[in-house]
Structure formats: structure tokens, C-alpha cells
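Look at a sample.

——
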Amino acid sequence: MALGYEVKGEVGAADVVARHGAEAPLIVELKIGFSLQLMHQAVARQRLTDSVYVAVPRWKGRAGWKAFKANVGLCKRLGVGVLSVDFETGAVQAHSDPAPFQPRKSKPKAAALMREFEAREGDPNEGGMARMTIVTAYRQDAEKCARHLAENGPSRGRDVKDATGIARATAMMRSNHYGWFEKQEKGIYALSTVGRKALNC
């Protein structure tokens, strides 16, 4: 109202409708939290006007902010504005305004995705697998190095590289991400107890 809007609640199917002179109406859908139903309502109101907002209570805590931020991102993609309401003070904060959304592509992330796709052998992962059990190209390479050590005993990094074709063999054994390798002496690595358990040997 302070901005010159005439505001009325529960107009037709809309929770709040505001109008500024002869401009197109502004609609706000209110809920006690983000939900699929709220998103459906907001999208339905876009048939009436381009200026559609959702309003929810202000988040609490770090986890609440993280979830709120993710939902703001979703609303931006739908072209829906977002308002938060502080129940203690009554303050309303706008976090995004309705606008057409054009996703920004990340060339580095897209390139990393395709590098992993090309480097991974076969399709070893099933849908729904826990993140800790996902088989990556890095893990596949580490397994090749570990199997070489299991079959040939302690070996020089360059010998593992030549035998497996893994160019980063020495670096992988040195960083020992999975705990599968043990440094015997300079440039020579062996399979650790953890590595033998992982390979069931």
C-alpha cells in the first residue's frame, strides 16, 4: 500500500491481488512453507498476470536458509517472484522478482561431465546407488593400479603406469585417496591391507 498499490485478499482463486493504477495486477500466493502445491498455484496464476509472487515465512537456521535458497532458484526458473515474511516483525523481504529465466551454462562443468563420461569404462552404476558407492573413472583407474600391485607385489610407479596404461598411476598411489596403497620406498608402492580388502584378496 505504501508503494501506491490497492491490495485485496482472497480475490477469486488468488490469495492476494494488488493493483497499481492501470497496470496489470500483481498476485501473491501465501503458504506456511514451500511445497509442490504452492508451485502449482503460482504457475496457474501466471495465466492471469506475469507478476506472480509466492510468500512464505522467513527461514530459520543454516539448513533452513540452504533449502530456502534452493527454492528461490526453482522459482526463478518458473518466472515466479519470492517474498519472505518475518512473523516476529512483520517485515517482508523480496528475494527475486518475476522475470523470464535464461539458465547460464557452465562450460567448465559441462566439460568435466564429459571428461568423466568418456573416461569411465562401461556403465558400472545402478540408479539409486549411494554417493559413497558410485564408481567413477578415477576409482576404476585406482582399481587397475591396485590389481597390478596385488598380482605383482610392490612396484615402481612408472612400471604400474606402463602395465596399466594409467598415466596418473604414480600420482594416484601417492595421494592414496582410498587408502589402498602404501609407500615402500621412494617411487615404490605396495597394496595396503585396506586395498586387499577392497579387492577381496
